[in-house]
Sequence to fold (721 residues):
Amino acid sequence: MPHTATLPGLKRDDSLASHFAIGQGYVLHLPRGPRGKGYLYRHSTLLKEVDLSKKLQRQTLVVDLMRQGVNQSDLAKALDLSRQTLHNYRELYDRFGLEGFVHGYTPSASKSRETQRRLHAAQRRPGAKARELEQLRAQERAALPQNAELDLDPPRYCLQAESQVAPEAGEKEHPAAESASLLPEADLPFAEHHAGCASRYAGVFILLFPLLTQWHWLDRIFTRFPRQWRIFQVFLLMSALNIRSIEQLKHVRREEAGRVLGLGALPSLPGVWSWFGQAAEQEGTQVLLEDQFDDQIERALVGTRVWFTDGHLLPYTGQERVHASYNTQRRMPVPGQTNQVTCDEHGRIVCFEIQEGKGDLRSRILRVGEYGKARTGQAPIQVFDREGHGAEFFSALVRANIPFATWEKYADKQRLEAIAEDAFTHRFESNGKTYRLLEEAKPMVYTHHDDHGAEQEHPFVLRRLVLWNQSSHRRASGLCWDGARGVDRETLALAILHRWGASENTFKHLGERHPLHYHPGFALSESHRQDIDNPQRKALDAQIKGIQAQLTRRYKQLSKAQQVANADGKPRANSKHQRLKQAIQKLETSQAQLREQRQQLPKRINVGELQDYRSFKKIDNEGKRLFDFVTASVWNVRRTLIDWLGAYYAKDSDRVDLFYAILHSHGWIKSDARWVVVRLEPLQQPNRRYAQEQLCRKLSGLGARIPGGKWLRIEVGDTPL
Fold:
């Protein structure tokens, strides 16, 4: 049925028949039909514009909407497609990713994309993909194993089974499969067999399904760490259950946790530390993270429209001397590092980098912008806090063609309050609050020196957005630049508010649910940064400041002292006024000499040239990157699972709590030669139990398979014992 609500941007002559409500609050506005430019809304908010005349954009839109649980019949009717075509699009994406839409072959992670294209140039099949999917489905149905072999009751729904298609001649298997084949069977995940053993950590099992099928998590780990995969499973448990250190694992039931993680049983703490040390010695986390960041962008697992970058303190409490970061809450420098993290508009972690000391947010944002431009062809809108405010940085972003949005640091409050109410022509809502919006132009000029030392002026114009909060009656302004993209002002305003509004940012919530600041064991080495502020300049600054205080006092005394003259009319030499003038002249001369000495001293010096100074140490972050790789993966999967729950549970405010209730569910695990089956205890409330059951059915239907060949399944029911 056509959507009859008024949508932003709807003109009077637009036909309401071009609006299609497709469920979950989504509405498609197709003013030029299903093969023209379309607009996607959710809850009357414009999300994106799509050119449906381009097949790739149409396919990507279908996959994204089906993931959000929209009504497939309504979607097919709106886009003038069959239901089977919609399912083919989704299956192509699940099997082959975006490459499947374009080239029709499966890229291997063992070779570069360019090499793959050369090797498979003759094998590309740009058409008839539906026929290929039919053949694959038929092969899977023929190879579907019988569930009667399992002790647990078979599920009441169809399960996607494994494909028995052998690799073609000359085609190599996935590197993870090659690495797994080199290990003894006892060293593979879930090697032990269990017959319906109880576990109070069974809910953690739900994380494995999207990690295996969408993030290819274990495949990536087995490629880089084929013999050290166990520590990643331990970190998975810690991230899921908010276990804040390895030492706290002593409170975990080792047998019950080990079965769910595929480890058999967790070892004692020395054994876990041994696993950690073996993985850290491989020194492969940087490549692991880069592969993860690139892959999740390429397969649209994270958003690429707006990116939020911020620095977060990683404190250090040891005895060695390290560079200082900054504690925002305490408003003082403290020993530690800075984790520069970039998130998308839904809170998913896109990438991060641990920097020594306070870090450099500005250079990080420039690199992230160039990184996004290289991966997607267009730099995402960069959102940052007031630390990045400044004409120099704005000019650098404009010259690099990187759009941005931030608060205006030195806004004139009186001018903002004096703006007439009728000037705020636009109205929108965010986080349950109503805002009115005004846009202005802010011209700026930045003067810099070129490579030859000549002064160059860079004039540019920013967009100033004045926000008026109708609830608190407060006004603030932000500065934005989007080049020639024509991004609407509401999108830019929401980008700023989502960073500092009621939800602030990802790390407010991540720190409550996950051990964000935990840094496993690490080593210390000599830092390459041994420079500090020159202590002699600091001492001279203190003297100059002291003299300035004396001068201020003398100036006040001089203004009050009256001049006294002798009988001949000449100023009396020993009067108070003359004594003050002489004292001021002496202090000014001394201050000028000190300033001259300060100018001749270097601003920073190497501590190795000083006595009684300890050198700076650098913290080895290999173990921290190992742990953060798992924490970031769990956090992103959490967001995906919560979105999937939205199709079965209507209460938005309670959906996060429902996810954690499922994550902490008790249950039973069964493992045999071909299957690993987990059964969760049902939740008590009927609507929650329904959502729990539907989520487990969806997860089982993903067809998750671990290195070694076993298939995973999860269900809800009573005890099988």
About this structure: The first helix runs from residue 55 to 67. The chain has four domains: 16-138, 144-286+638-716, 304-345+348-504, 531-615.
